[in-house]
Amino acid sequence: KTDRQNLAxxxxxxxxxxxxxxxxxxxxxxxxxxxxNARTGTQIPWASLHGMRVAGLCSIGDxxxxxxxLSRLPVQTVGILxxxxxxxxxxxxxxxxxxxSKEVDALITTEKDIAKIDLTMLQTDKLVVLAIEQVIDxxxxxxxxxxxxxxx
Length: 152
Known about the structure:
Order of helices and strands: HEEHEHEHEH
Strand order of the largest sheet: 1-5-4-2-3
Structural class: alpha/beta
Helix content: 25-40%
Number of strands: 5
CATH topology: Rossmann fold
Strand content: 25-35%
Largest sheet: 5 strands, mixed
Number of helices: 5
């Protein structure tokens, strides 16, 4: 986590403690589990991305979080093409994506976003999909508390 994220988390914990000092606080993070070719669904080895010039493509609520995730990959991110959350892609958007694909080795997006992209509107084969899962820190304790509270 960045210093800024830690500061925000500390502030949130302090607010929660004002209301309930004994409340357990759990955090979660996103983990990339797989990288796939958007057209074929074929898994791409992590090592093959090493050093590539890439652009991110997203229509999610937190493009900065997506950018942070890309920064963890062994790639050179040259930009992020970001649309509003739940964006409906239009012909002009596909043209923009196509132009951008000519400037990079790969366009990286998420499973959530690829579900909204009509691949028949694109000719590029450079679209890569990140499979992402959310991981709860201290998962065992979290689920024990949930199970105990659900049993009451």
